[in-house]
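Dear support,

I submitted the protein below through the web form. The confirmation email said the job was done, but the results page showed an empty box. After a refresh the structure appeared. I'm attaching both so you can tell me whether what I see now is the final result or a partial one.
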Amino acid sequence: MNKKNIITSILENIKTIIGALIIAVFIRSLFFQPFYIPSSSMEPTLLVGDRIFVSKYTYGFSRHSFPFSPNIFKERINYKEPKQGDSVVFKTPEDNRTDFIKRLIGLPGDEIQFIEGDIFINNQKIIRKKIETNDLARCGKVLFEVDKYEETLPNGTKHIAIYNKIGTTQNTKKFKVPENHFFLLGDNRDCSRDSRFNNIGYVNFVNLVGKARIIFFSNDTNKGSLLKFWNLNNSFRIDRLFKRIK
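What the results page shows now:
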């Protein structure tokens, strides 16, 4: 192969790679993006080691829909308001960079408060049914006993939430959700940085990234790393493969 053919071949490969990258960025920005779950704040819905697909188009698009959050527009395009109960990925107001996933509990104008361990939305206690199981949940490297409940939000959406048997959140101030903002909680209520805390607080609609849709892979990191492929049969959670996220 002569020098000219080598250069032509290199240029063709470069163009192919660039084209593939453009297509990947397009799909990732406008349709679906994969995320890894690194913490237990959404147990039992999402476990550490879950890998999920998030739909980017569900709430429309903002600058945070794109890699590196370029400051190309300030509002949202084709905005659709999320629903109570959605599992939402968002950029934290703290730095507008870090991705969090929590459950949307409060819409603009809603008032949310914990009273004696129960959640009240607009002065109405949300319905919850205790699930009779003796469960353990993780918070970092610590395991603790939890009470598990099926909660029903005012719009009828149901989800599972867990509360520490000892030392759960009993009472909070009343949170009033501002216009174009949302109030989000982790399903693992006593192991979650969320809208109850000042460093997260209310999440602006511009910070929404997308809605969690499906778990496409899950690996129990306590039983082995993906790099230890010979141990994958022990750590791979086959029952979570392609599980829809509620």
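Response: this is the final, complete result; the empty box was a page-load delay. The two ends are 57 Å apart (CA to CA).
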